Q: What sequence folds into this?
């Protein structure tokens, strides 16, 4: 059985790899739709509040009103230096890859799974007309892909 829950958060980001408007720092009101796989045990499977008790705090503390930023983006070092110099704290959600909606889906899928839930699908709405639908199969495939890429980088660094 699938239980569907919706959440939202506001965050800024940029994609430093692009040569279009998305290279500029900008924000979104992200919509997150979780499709949880559950098994019925008696008259109910899982209380809706069980999802909210874990997913909502994750989004509120890690993502809401944060800057999603790739640690390889030159802007990241500038922001870290600023915080060290001024003592100001900024909510930075650090990515090890560009902050595309696909990479956001990959990261969120893993974090929600680590909360103890089995996700079937995750939808990330970046704008009113743009939605990334990300499945468990996508997550498994991306884990393999990124593990291979990370291993290739480690091998290159070891040779250098």
A:
């Amino acid at each position: 059985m699938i239980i569907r829950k919706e959440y939202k958060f506001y965050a800024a980001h940029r994609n430093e790899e692009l040569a279009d408007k998305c290279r500029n720092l900008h924000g979104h009101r992200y919509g997150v739709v979780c499709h949880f796989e559950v098994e019925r045990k008696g008259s109910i499977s899982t209380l809706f509040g069980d999802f909210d008790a874990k997913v909502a705090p994750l989004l509120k503390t890690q993502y809401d009103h944060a800057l999603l930023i790739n640690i390889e983006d030159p802007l990241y070092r500038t922001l870290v230096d600023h915080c060290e110099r001024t003592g100001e704290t900024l909510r930075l959600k650090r990515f090890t890859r560009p902050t595309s909606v696909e990479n956001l889906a990959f990261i969120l899928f893993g974090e929600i799974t680590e909360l103890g839930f089995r996700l079937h699908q995750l939808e990330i709405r970046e704008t009113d007309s743009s939605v990334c639908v990300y499945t468990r199969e996508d997550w498994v495939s991306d884990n393999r892909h990124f593990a291979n890429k990370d291993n290739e980088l480690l091998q290159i660094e070891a040779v250098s």
